[in-house]
Design a protein that fits this description.
Blueprint: E1 34-40, H1 47-61, E2 66-73, H2 79-89, E3 93-98, H3 103-113, E4 118-122, H4 133-142, E5 147-151, E6 158-160, H5 163-179, E7 191-195, H6 196-202, H7 213-223, E8 228-232, E9 234-236, H8 245-265, H9 293-319, H10 324-347, H11 356-384, H12 390-416
Parallel strand pairs: 1-2, 1-4, 2-3, 5-8, 6-9
Antiparallel strand pairs: 4-7, 5-7
Helix pairs in contact: 1-2, 5-8, 9-10, 9-12, 10-11, 11-12
């Protein structure tokens, strides 16, 4: 799935106007800065105590206007009536009804429609201590992070739950780290928040509508380079939870397979979620330091070790039924195709299908050079020895492949996947040099749908402001 939305603007501290919330007036008096969504399905007994407790906590401790949205997804009991009563009795509480089940569907629908600059959700059982709510959303308000999650698996978290759920949770997160290279610690904790501008661009890429929604959102955000803040939480498990663990685990595993396949084949345009230059210090152009060289070397070596093992295994297999030259050519061809694809995605960060065939064709040219080196080495071995042993052939091939690997990296970096030249800053007409030798950029139309400084879209006091048109122009050095 692709999105046509533009790149995200640089993070900024959310400008929130002084409100009467700090003077004892309800948080509903002004446009909300925080919208807390509670997705529910047949929760007529727990919904009332949950919303009242959350409303009291926010009224007493949260310094900005807030809203609580009950997202009822196809409840068949009295949950809709309870939600309507709460909305009528408590200021700042609203209810939203969906006719289809799915926690992910409910969150995506409400978050997409919300105008609040910070969006959060929590489970109706309130297993998480509410004192973690302000630390959860503070990095989003300050502009430090894009998403925030509560974690039950950090050292300072205090968790009370059964051994079965503890094992399932830790096993699931280990699967995520092993299969999708996830670095966040707890994907399933029902206590998360996201900036509104990030949600508008990220949610169209998230396909799941059920329990895997959280995991998919976090994996895509992490792969796109967005910053995820983790908050240790105190958690007391709900023994009466109606979640079907087995069915949820199977759905999650299917989701892991789907997302992993999409990431491996470049089906997701995650580059559209990246921040522009200036938000990531690793993107800055430093004289005498090649862009991404250290990271590329590490990635290339890892891919090279794996592809070499695959190559040697294929050579040994093909050698059983054919000559050494034919076995070498077939093994090198198959491993070269996989090597080019892996280096394209993992080492040089090229995503999507654009120029994929061209890169493979260039990789085949590199393959021919490697074939000449390894084939020539085998020919020299057979010239020197009439009947060399299989171990001698492997030793010669390893040495030849080391030389071919060094040449392959140089060709990949300089020819197949070269760093793009940074675009020159466009000076505005009649503008002189700006601070630090830069040229102020010409003010352009706001592509993000945000309001200029001092205003807010649709009257929302907590809206994110557009980047300052008078800020010094810089170039985006982020690679593909």
């Amino acid at each position: 799935m692709r999105t046509t939305l533009g790149n995200l603007p640089p993070r900024q501290h959310l400008p929130v106007a002084d409100t009467a919330a700090g003077e004892g007036v309800s948080g509903a008096a002004a446009a909300p800065v925080l919208d807390v969504v509670i997705p529910v399905h047949n929760e007529e007994n727990d919904l009332g105590p949950c919303v009242r407790r959350l409303h009291a906590h926010l009224s007493e401790t949260f310094p900005y206007p807030f809203r609580i949205t009950v997202a009822d997804n196809a409840s068949s009991d009295l949950t809709p009536l309870v939600a309507a009563e709460l909305a009528a009795q408590l200021p700042g509480v609203t209810s939203f009804r969906l006719e289809q089940k799915g926690r992910g569907r409910a969150l995506r629908t409400v978050w997409t429609a919300s105008g609040a600059p910070v969006l959060a959700y929590m489970d109706v059982d309130l297993s998480t201590d509410l004192n973690a709510l302000l630390p959860l959303v503070a990095p989003l308000i300050s502009g430090h992070s894009d998403l925030a999650i509560g974690s039950r698996l950090t050292r300072s978290s205090r968790v009370v739950r059964g051994a079965k759920r503890e094992f399932v949770s830790r096993a699931y997160n280990m699967i995520l780290r092993g299969s999708l290279a996830a670095r966040f610690s707890d994907a399933q904790c029902g206590f998360k928040a996201i900036r509104g501008d990030v949600a508008q661009r990220l949610l169209p890429m998230v396909e799941d509508t059920g329990w895997f929604f959280d995991t998919e959102m976090l994996v895509l955000a992490e792969r796109a380079g967005l910053r995820i803040h983790e908050v240790p939480v105190d958690w007391v498990d709900d023994p009466d939870s109606s979640v079907d663990i087995v069915r949820t685990a199977l759905d999650d595993l299917r989701g892991v397979w789907r997302v992993g396949r999409a990431l491996a084949t470049g089906q997701l345009a995650l580059d559209r979620l990246r921040r522009p230059f200036g938000d990531d210090p690793r993107d800055r152009d430093l004289s005498g330091v090649p862009v991404g060289l250290a990271r590329q070397l590490v990635g290339f070596c890892a891919v090279g070790v794996l592809s070499t093992l695959v190559y040697l295994a294929l050579f040994s297999l093909f050698r059983l039924g054919t000559g050494s030259q034919a076995a070498n050519a077939l093994a090198l061809l198959l491993s070269a195709l996989g090597n080019t694809a892996a280096n394209r995605r993992l080492t040089f960060g090229v995503r999507g299908r654009d120029r994929a065939m061209r890169h493979q064709a260039q990789g085949l040219v590199v393959f021919v050079i490697g074939l000449a080196l390894t084939g020539g080495s085998l020919a020299a071995l057979h010239t020197a020895t009439d009947a060399p042993s299989h171990g001698s052939e492997l030793a010669v091939l390893v040495a030849a492949n080391l030389a071919a690997t060094v040449l392959r990296f140089l060709l990949f970096r300089a020819w197949v996947f070269p760093d793009p030249a940074p675009p020159a800053p466009a000076p505005s007409p009649g503008a002189g040099p700006g601070p630090c030798g830069t040229v102020p950029a010409k003010p352009a139309a706001d592509p993000y749908g945000t309001a200029p400084h001092g205003t807010a879209p649709h009257g929302a006091a907590g809206a994110v402001h557009a980047p300052d048109p008078g800020a010094p122009a810089t170039s985006d050095r982020r690679t593909r």
